[in-house]
Specification:
single chain, alpha+beta
């Protein structure tokens, strides 16, 4: 199992973050709709009729922009620049709402008077909503869009014939009061301050969003790594490995159960079938056997062509490792038999499954080079399990379990092992290829 974070087929964390961005954007659209609904209710009671009708139309456009941005973001035809268009439209519409007099309200006051209400603060609400999408560039674009739209709106007001913006030559309280009392007066100093403060706020928020995005990407990468670990280890073990730093730096030795499974007559079968059919068969069998391994708390060490190697008790030993391995062996045989008789199985009577299991001391740790590391389980126990699987052909059976494994399973769960022993028969001593002496084994 390679110790890389980027393997073939791994999903890019940025792609994983995209779904979170869309979910946050949807949440923002829902929040916007709720806020707009509340504003509509307030306007109904606070604004004289028929003034609310004009406000309702603007609120509907705001709602459309919010949901439109979300719908465009999740559509297959969407492009990144679509979001920028919606952001600019948002700030342009807010500028129009704040500066354009309601034509249905029977109040006679100059358009410049709209700047007296301090309504520029509403731009900060829209800017804060952009932080939901984890895109610092979009936040900066929001700041620029607001400044451009607001400057354009103020510029149009400055062009009105009754606009007064010049400062008095003699600064006095009376001169200032006289100037500000004029309905068409616009304080350019305040407008410049608004723009400057807003740009600073947008920049600071963009930096905060950038940092948040990096943290979110890091968390997405960790989640992806944890998911990859889950393909090899049980859930609890994967969580344990994800929380530890370099857990296999120093080799460790303890007892564990090792299981080898292999397809019998697979080479002969594959000669008569296409590569696509061969791959499909291996996927079905591998998936079937891997599910059994995980169901009994085992670790999928590797796929060995048409078979696999699994361990029980790695990377951390458990209290029922031998029993779990013995149970997995029996269930593998039963599951493969059920699959072989099913409609999806190939019609090949010679195709079968052989399993060998042994229990004993193993060494676990990283092997390889600093450029490429691999988690490995080594030792004589691994060799014995592999040889037991190969010895099933000569023994005339499909599964062989060493007496050491059976004895350890009895010690771990005597009552439950009795049920499994009813399906086992003592085979006696087995000579294993490449080893001196013999080993006592049980057959299924």
């Amino acid at each position: 199992m390679a110790d890389h974070t980027k393997e073939a087929g791994q999903q890019d964390p940025a792609h994983s973050l995209r779904s979170e961005e869309l979910a946050a954007q949807k949440t923002a659209a829902i929040g916007r709709s709720a806020a707009l609904t509340a504003i509509a209710v307030l306007v109904t009671f606070l604004s004289p009729w028929p003034g609310p009708l004009f406000t309702y139309s603007l609120l509907l456009v705001f709602a459309f922009l919010g949901w439109g941005a979300w719908l465009a973001g999740r559509a297959e035809w969407a492009r990144p620049w679509h979001q920028y268009v919606f952001v600019f439209a948002d700030f342009a519409l807010l500028t129009f709402t704040l500066l354009y007099p309601n034509p249905l309200v029977p109040f006679d006051y100059s358009p410049q008077f709209a700047l007296r209400y301090g309504s520029f603060i509403f731009f900060f609400v829209l800017l804060a909503g952009l932080a939901y999408v984890y895109q610092p560039k979009l936040v900066l674009w929001g700041g620029i869009s607001a400044v451009v739209a607001w400057a354009a709106g103020v510029g149009l007001l400055l062009r009105l014939p009754d606009t007064v913006s010049a400062q008095p030559e003699v600064i006095s309280v009376q001169a200032v009061l006289q100037l500000t009392a004029q309905p068409g007066f616009i304080d350019l100093g305040i407008r410049v301050q608004e723009i400057a403060v807003f740009l600073i706020s947008a920049s600071l928020l963009a930096l905060a969003v950038r940092r948040s995005r990096r943290i979110a990407l890091r968390q997405a990468a960790l989640a992806q790594q944890r998911e990859n670990l889950g393909r090899y280890f049980p859930r609890k073990t994967a969580q344990l490995l994800a929380e530890r730093t370099d857990p296999f730096s120093a080799p460790r030795e303890h007892k564990a159960a090792v299981l080898f499974a292999d397809l019998v007559a697979f080479t002969k079968w594959s000669e008569a079938h296409s590569p696509q059919e061969t791959i499909e068969l291996l996927r079905q069998v591998h998936g079937l056997l891997a599910e059994v391994v995980f169901r009994h708390g085992g670790t999928l060490d590797k796929f060995t062509g048409d078979g696999l190697m699994a361990t029980f008790g790695t990377p951390e030993p458990g209290k029922r490792d031998a029993f779990d391995a013995l149970s997995a062996m029996v269930e593998m045989a039963d599951s493969f038999a059920d699959w072989s008789s099913g409609p999806a199985a190939p019609r090949q009577p010679d195709l079968g499954l052989s399993v060998g299991v042994h229990y004993g001391p193993v060494v676990i740790g990283n092997i390889g080079t600093p450029a490429r590391l691999e988690f490995a389980v080594l030792g004589d126990t691994v060799n014995v399990a592999s040889r037991l699987e190969g010895a099933t052909r000569k023994a005339g059976c499909r599964c062989l379990a060493s007496a050491d494994l059976v004895d350890a399973a009895k010690a771990e769960a005597a009552a439950e092992t009795d049920g499994l022993l009813q399906r086992l028969r003592h085979h006696g001593p087995v000579h294993l290829r490449g080893r001196d002496g013999e080993i006592s084994a049980y057959r299924l």
